[in-house]
Amino acid sequence: MMHVRDLIGESVAGMLARPVRSALTTLGTVLGITTLVITLGVAATAGNQIVGRFDALVATAITVEVPESPGAPLVEWDAIDRLTRLRGVESAAAVADSKDGENVSVRSNDIVDPTRVTTQTLTVLAATTGLPEAARGRMVQGRFYDAGHIARRDRVAVIGDQAAKMLGVTRLDRAPAIFIGKHAYTVIGILGDLRRERNLSTAVLVPPTVGRQFGLSDVTRVLVNTSLGAAGLIARQAPTALSPGNGDMLQVVAPPSPTRARDQAQDDVNALFLILGLVSLVVGAVGIANVTLVTVMERVPEIGLRRSLGAARRHIAAQFLLESTLIGLTGGVIGAALGIVTVVAVSAAKQWTPLLDLRLAVAAPVAGAVVGLLAGLYPALRAARMEPVDALR
Q: Which InterPro entries match (predicted)?
């Protein structure tokens, strides 16, 4: 009867008898486990960074929809001043749009040139001075109109960057004009790089006091940006600040709870990288199976001799299974160590906070051993089925 100690000794001796081959066999598992640990570790770390940016960008944007009112407007243009005084509001702007302001013919000059398309159909909006910050954009050229333009009813306009390309407006140093209907408006700025309200890139923005002729007399929505974590509180306070006494008539579109979207995004990223890691692990398992099978074929005389001396089939099968399992376990330990070091190095290079699950570090060597065990199953059974006479022939 073969003792466990003898079995382990035979398996270790079999591994050490051909160290180069054992090392190359272990390399397959090392690569598979390393890839698995790196992909899961980097996915968790990168997912955490993505979630942080997702929170900062999305979870701070509030839109207040203002319905039409048959009497006095529900929100006055100067109500933005009360809203911005709330603690947690970083920027806000009131916007007016209407059907009369949609699909308006805008020309870059008053010359009728049949060889060129000088007229574009654009949307005209009225907005308060804080729109660039509220839309999370920047002035690509020029400036946004200010309170002076609004008070003086200056015929000035700010156009989106795409609208500027459509109208052929490339420079503002000569105070170009665009024609909306019969009236000329001086273009004083181009708004671009919008991260919110991207439709403004193809719009024409005019001061509220000028936009009345396009039916833009009343505020239709208010864009609000808050500090991180203040969106819920501001969403409750904004209606009262904008329209005291009629706040319940306003519709607040608060950012959805980021928890669910965050979990879904993180699950998707983890699932993607888990699949990649498992594919690498399967490739490593195939490598172990191939090399173990070759080992069996090379050791046929040894198997025949041991069977002739009384070794049972289970002893032969157990030896090869244990060898492949030890190879997988060794590869798992080395692969887990290399994977953890790589995740920490990548995080340090990207200035991220590494996010490692200790369960992954513990499970990786076990996974390597299981892969080795499964990979050595067929070669071990093939070795065990050999008849002593055939093996010695």
A: ABC3_permease_C, MacB_PCD, Macrolide_Exporter_MacB
Burial (CB < 10 A; 0-12, 13-18, 19+), residue 121, is exposed
Give me the amino acid identity at 13: A
Residue 287 φ then ψ, to 5°: -60, -45
Distance, in Å, from the CA atom of 214 to the CA atom of 98, rounded to the nearest integer, reads: 8
Are 252 and 92 a contacting pair, CB within 8 Å? no
Q: What is the pLDDT of residues 24-80, one digit of tens each?
A: 777 777 777 777 777 777 767 766 666 555 555 567 889 999 998 887 889 999 999
- The answer to whether 292 touches 323, Cβ cutoff 8 Å, is yes
pTM of the complete model: 0.56
Task: Give CA–CA dist 201/37, Å, rounded.
Answer: 44
The set of residues, in sequence order, having a beta carbon less than 8 Å from that of 40 and lying 6+ positions away, is: 270, 273, 274, 277, 357, 360
Q: Are 298 and 304 in contact (CB under 8 A)?
A: no
